[in-house]
Amino acid sequence: MSGGEPDPTFRWFVDESMIAIDKALASVRNDLVYPGHPDCPIRRGMDDEDWLPIVGDNGWIVLMRDKRIRYRKPERDRLMAHDAKAFCLTGSGNKTRWDMLQLLVRHWDRIEDTALLPGPFIYGITSGGLRKLAP
Predict the structure, then answer these.
(1) Under 8 Å between Cβ of 53 and 130
(2) What angle in degrees, to the nearest 10, is found between the helix axes of 48-58 and 73-81?
(3) Average pLDDT, the chain
(4) 24-63 pLDDT, tens per residue?
């Protein structure tokens, strides 16, 4: 749908950094896509420069995993440049997929509420809750 009207069917985009979590979430929610999803134009392995405009054009909210996002200014800047709203599992380096899924579910209501705020922004998701990382 890039370049046209946003697709209202989907609200969330799960980045491939959360492989397996994407399918688990999609099995219980019908408002998200991930690379490889039949209705998602983003393929696995696409560069950020290629998929970020698609996410931005569709108004999708990004769920991703990157414990060092707060130190990676170029990556943060790319997300901001495409008006992305992003939630990032920041302390998930040693967590299992099950741990990550539990963390998302435990904080999902707060994630939903925060996603209503104007963007762009990046929030970290930690065991303690949400923390604004950018801007």
Answers:
(1) no
(2) 40
(3) 87
(4) 999 999 999 999 999 999 999 998 888 988 998 899 999 9
Please say whether the beta carbons of 87 and 123 come within 8 A: yes
3-class secondary structure per residue, 9-66: CCCEEECHHHCCHHHHHHCCCCCEECCCCCCCCCCCCCCHHHHHHHHHHHCCEEEEEC
Return the pLDDT at 131.
Answer: 94
Q: Which residues pair with 12 in a beta bridge?
A: 32, 61
Name which of 113, 127, 133, 111 is nearest 14 in CA terms.
111
- Residue 120: is the preceding peptide bond cis (ω within 30°)? yes
